Amino acid sequence: MPTLTTPLDDALASTSAVRLLRLFTSTSEPISGREAGRRIRMAKRTADLALRELLARGLVVREDTRAEALYRINREHTLVATALIPLFAAEQQWTDALFQTLRNLISDAAAEVNAEVMWAGIYGSVARSEEDAKSDLDLAVVTRTASEAQALHRPISDRAFDFTVRFGQRLSPFIQPLAQLKRLSAANDPLVKGLERDARRLVGNADIADLLRG
Predict the structure, then answer these.
(1) Is there a contact between 142 and 185 (Cβ–Cβ < 8 Å)?
(2) Which is nearest to 200 in space by CA: 133, 116, 140?
């Protein structure tokens, strides 16, 4: 059970608990244990064990229906109201700020060298939510011409350090003209195929796979 002075030690004791609390603080609807596990890609037994701990601490409440047990965050719990809800809101703001800063970084770098960015996005382990502490943030940038791609390397690299200081993410830029990416895609290059499969778009009006097929 939580102590009087360090209740967050127990509330955030496991990754499973954190992921469930993040989910429950983001919605007001009751959710079954099975559905909660599905939404956060967690095995049902793992979710059930974590829910049992959260129930014991009073952070979630259970509603029994004829069909199944439903769970929701206990918004009357002082720790939920004063710490957990603001914490996960701040986490989302951090993510939103990171993506907007990346967009600004790309826009400013392109303006500096008068380059046209046709598409940009993140890919790799971070985009798949499979990263670890050693993972870089893979950033792909697609230009119209080879000279624009070459020109963009310096201004993006110049801005990468400040981005890392602010967000703790090391940028690994992959900057290519569209024609070259199309050739690599046609040759089944594994990096480009991974880009097509996993990328999360930051700049551009179409998904990268559609752009490469166009």
Answers:
(1) no
(2) 140
- pLDDT 10s digits, 127-174: 888 888 888 999 999 999 999 999 999 999 999 999 999 999 999 999
Q: Compute CA distances 96 → 27, 106, 139, whole Å.
A: 18, 16, 16
Tokens describing residue 134: 């050693």
| pLDDT given for residue 1 in this prediction | 53
Eight-state DSSP code of residue 195: H
Provide the CATH topology of domain 7-76: Arc Repressor Mutant, subunit A (1.10.10)
Q: Which two tokens stand for residue 111?
A: 């303006």
Domain 91-213 adopts which CATH fold? Beta Polymerase; domain 2 (3.30.460)
**What pTM, to 2 d.p., does this model score?**
0.85
| Whole-number Cα distances in Å, 123 to 76, 137, 213 | 40, 8, 18
- Given a contact cutoff of 8 angstroms between Cβ atoms, the answer to whether 199 and 122 are in contact is yes
Topology alike, domains 7-76 and 91-213: no
CA 135, CA 131: separation in Å to the nearest integer?
6
**What are the residue boundaries of the structural domains of the chain, listed by start?**
7-76, 91-213
CB atoms under 10 Å from CB of 21, counted, come to 22
DSSP letter for each residue of 32-98: EHHHHHHHTT--HHHHHHHHHHHHHTTSEEEEE-SS-EEEEE-TTSHHIIIIIHHHHHHHHHHHHHH
